[in-house]
Design brief:
Elements (H helix, E strand, L loop, with lengths): L9 E7 L4 E7 L31 H12 L4 H14 L1 E2 L2 H9 L1 H5 L2 H6 L14 E2 L2 H12 L5 H5 L3 H10 L6 H6 L3 E3 L4
Antiparallel strand pairs: 1-2, 2-5, 3-4
Helix pairs in contact: 2-6
C-alpha cells in the first residue's frame, strides 16, 4: 500500500538464457509537459507530496512491453491475484500500520487518502490486522486485464480521460497528450 496503484515506474534488467543476452527496460515516470524547472522553488514539499508530485506513469506500459516480448501466460491472468486482493482487502501489517501513523496528518488532509484508506476502516487510521479494500483499483485493473489493448487503456484508451481528469481535479498537471505520448525504452545494459 505504500506503493500501489497504476502510477510509478521501474528499470528492469532481464537476462534471457536462451539468447545468452541481457536487456534493460526503462519504464520510469516522466515529468508532465507542463512541468517547469522552477515549479518547486517556493514549494519544496510539492516534489514529494500531493498532485504536483505526480509524474506520467510508466509502470503499466513497461509491464505490457515485458509481456509482449517475453510473456507466456495470458495477460489477463497476471492481474487476477492483485484484483482479488484489492476486492477482498489488503492486510495491514505492522510496518504499514506504522507508516500510516507516521503519515497521519497527510492522510487526513487528503480527500483521496481519506476515500481510499480511511473509508475502509470507519474513518480511523488502519491498524495492524485491518484490511483495506481498493474497489476502484480493482475495477481499473479489471479493465486493463480484460482489454485486448492491455495497458493502452490507461495511456490511449477508455481510462485515459478519467485518469487525467482525476489528477487535474486534485491540482496536478498531467495532460492526455502526456499519457498518449509516453513510451518506454529498451537499452543495452552495461557489461
Amino acid at each position: 500500500m505504500q506503493s500501489n496503484g497504476v502510477g510509478g515506474g521501474f528499470v528492469m534488467t532481464i537476462y534471457n538464457k536462451t539468447e545468452n543476452k541481457s536487456y534493460s527496460l526503462i519504464a520510469r515516470e516522466t515529468a508532465p509537459s507542463l512541468a517547469t524547472q522552477d515549479m518547486y522553488v517556493n514549494h519544496s514539499d510539492w516534489s514529494t507530496l500531493g498532485p504536483m508530485a505526480v509524474a506520467v506513469p510508466g509502470e503499466l506500459k513497461g509491464y505490457q512491453e515485458l509481456h509482449e516480448r517475453f510473456g507466456k501466460r495470458p495477460w489477463s491472468e497476471l492481474f487476477q491475484p492483485t484484483i482479488a486482493l484489492c476486492e477482498e482487502g489488503v492486510p495491514v501489517n505492522k510496518r504499514l500500520a506504522e507508516h500510516f501513523a507516521e503519515e497521519a496528518v497527510n492522510i487526513q488532509n487528503s480527500d483521496t487518502f481519506v476515500q481510499v484508506i480511511l473509508n475502509s476502516t470507519g474513518g480511523r487510521l488502519p491498524k495492524e490486522g485491518d484490511k483495506i479494500k481498493l474497489p476502484l483499483l480493482a475495477r481499473t485493473l479489471s479493465v486493463i486485464a480484460g482489454s485486448p489493448n492491455m495497458a493502452e487503456e490507461l495511456y490511449n484508451g477508455s481510462l485515459t480521460a478519467q485518469f487525467v481528469a482525476d489528477i487535474q481535479a486534485a491540482g496536478g498537471i498531467i495532460t492526455e497528450a502526456d499519457m498518449n505520448n509516453y513510451t518506454v525504452q529498451w537499452e543495452d545494459p552495461y557489461k
